[in-house]
Give the backbone structure.
Amino acid sequence: SRPAASPPATWLTQAQAHLHAFEQRATQSGDTPDHYKAVRSALRQLMWDNVGIVRRTATLRTALAGIHTLADQAHACRGDRPATVVRCLELENLLLIAEAITLAALTRQESRGTHYLEECPDKDDTHWLCNLLVQQSDDRALQVRKAPVVTV
């Protein structure tokens, strides 16, 4: 078997910087489980209301703005107990995934599968028979790009 490829050095640098920043937050006491629960509940409701099966561009944009607001609130999550640290990291990951889903939904200008975009009710294989890949750039912003569908 061949050895696993090493991750790019920039990934390691970014991971170390993110961990260092989080370690600084984790040494500060004062957060309560209620803060985490409130942000998580607000995210769940925001996604249910705006990024469900039937979608509209306006509600997807509303969701994206709400996700950014909640991400700011999640970034304030801190605490010196291990369980709090885990909850804060989990919350940040949930918000990252919610943003990726919403950005992909805003990018795809068609209805496909079970997801229906009101402004574009038909499937459009000419422009959208592709996979959408969401990747985080060096500045931590999410970017969406098309990738071909591989068929066998």
